[in-house]
Write a structure and sequence with these properties.
Length: 66
């Protein structure tokens, strides 16, 4: 039986929500090993005038504890 743990990570990107998600996983992988999945819990964006300036995600990252 595997033991899994979930952490919540906030990340941002100037490009897209997908890129923000990739950045969250990339940053978490620096200190967490055996990442199994990522769940996008929430998306938001910062707007200046009529332009989106930043994409933000709140993700849950699941990893196996060995």
């Amino acid at each position: 039986m595997a033991v899994l743990k979930v952490i919540e990570v906030l990340a941002n990107s100037n490009e897209s929500w997908e890129d923000a998600t990739r950045q969250a996983v990339k940053h978490a992988a620096k200190s967490v090993k055996n990442i199994r999945s990522v769940y996008v819990n929430e998306q938001s964006a910062s707007v200046d005038g009529d332009n989106i300036t930043e994409f933000r995600v709140n993700v849950k990252i699941t990893f196996e504890v060995k």
